[in-house]
Amino acid sequence: MEDAIVRNKKFIDIAEKLKPRLKKSKVYGKNLVEVVNDKNFIHGWKVNKIGDIKDLDKKVCGKGDSFIVDFSDHEVGYLSMKIRTVGSPQDAPLRMKVILGEMPCEMKEPFSNYKGWISSSWLQEEIITIDVISEVITLPRRYSFRYLKIEVLDTSAKYKVIFDEIYCTTVTSGDRTLIKGLPENVNNDLKKMDNVSIKTLEDCMQDVFEDGPKRDRRLWLGDLRLQAISNYKTFKNYDLVKRCLYLFAGVQDNNGQVPACLFIEPKIRADDSYFWDYSLFFIDVLYDYYKETKDKNIVRDLWSTAYRQIEIVMENLGDDNILKENGDFYVFVDWNQELERQASAQAILIYCAKKALQIAEEFNYEQRNFLRLKIKELTSAALNKFWDEKEKLFIGGEKRQISWATQIWMVIAGVISKKDSKRLMKRLFERKPTIKLVTPYAYHHLIEALILSGNKEFAIDQMKAYWGKMIEAGADTFWELYDPQDEKYSPYGSNLINSYCHAWSCTPTYFIREYLI
Ligand code: RAM
């Protein structure tokens, strides 16, 4: 598998020089809490404060004792504990279980219940054995959490322990001091949403733009695209976007395709997942980066990689200029497993070909004539194949499915005029297809489609309704998955393993700063 990956050394070297220095700060646990059953709260768990963290050094813990610390906000970093013994000398190791959670459910629902298809090792839980208790113990792994549960499994009959201090050394490559505050007159709901978005992005900004600091802790192209545009409005860490672009270009496969995701440690290498949409989005990230920085060199370096993604995807066009369906997950779009993705794939190809055309025109690249022609052909093919004159909606796939995603992507790709797009979006909300959107990633595209079709006010209402609801439910950072009708929704088999600080959910700050102020 490794041999199939072309490592372009020049690109990787450029990326490595842009590796960020992480900012660190020390954050202390704030409150002692209990988590109790209450169906009125998210996932059925309510958090009650039962003490101040200052009370912790009065709590003598022996076998079977436990407590939960609330850090009052989402944190990403390294956990340290200052522990001392009481009673006789430490005549046996201290053994404890440490559970870290982004959400209250992780404090109460046993991780052993997780039977889903992704690895349970993402659940943040350790058994730690300390032979010699001396001052501060720092756990080696980086965690993503707000709540911390400690269960003392054993001390000995002769000694117990006290936790004097518990803190997290947080890490991020985002510098908050560079972010402009919103104008006074922006309403508080939007200010709050902006804040939570920024916190989400900040916690995902590490060595690269990670998708989620709890899971998968790595660089995905689809997530990068949304992080990058939000970053331009806030942290303005251009080098981090540049680094990620060069990393992807550095690990394209033998055919020139960039992977959906890549690993940074122990050395940079591509994952073996390839999605057409994610590969194509390489062009969009490059286009936005160029628009933002006017850095011509990066376009010169990466244009052939970018253009290659279009060629590769277009190899799958039939004689009718329609992309053929290509098995499960050849294109991502959203996590909704019932979604027929063919029509969205076609629209995403058109959207990215238009971005490529803009670059090609500005740089006088020879591919511009071909792109201009092809965009026309792809667009009329899309209308022929997917537009249903009776329903006045796009209908996709073999099952003749009407989905939210298909209409949204056709609008974003500009397959129909702005006026028709506005009508289509109205019809979409009247029709409310059952094949719905289940991720903030897909909702981002809904908001985008509404804005592009001239429904700005309605777009803001939708944004408030969706992301605002997460805030009402207690989100400190925005979640990977959120279905307002089914708050426990997870494509992985349990709400326990979802990521609750997820990069692709951070775009309200982009919408607010791009369109509203
Ligand atoms: C999830 C990742 C990431 C996304 C992929 C498709 O597993 O967390 O956010 O890009 O799916």
Automatic annotation (TrEMBL):
InterPro entries: 6-hairpin_glycosidase_sf, 6hp_glycosidase-like_sf, Bac_rhamnosid6H, Glyco_hydro_78_N. GO terms for biological process: carbohydrate metabolic process. It comes from the Bacteria. This is Bacterial alpha-L-rhamnosidase. It comes from Clostridium felsineum.
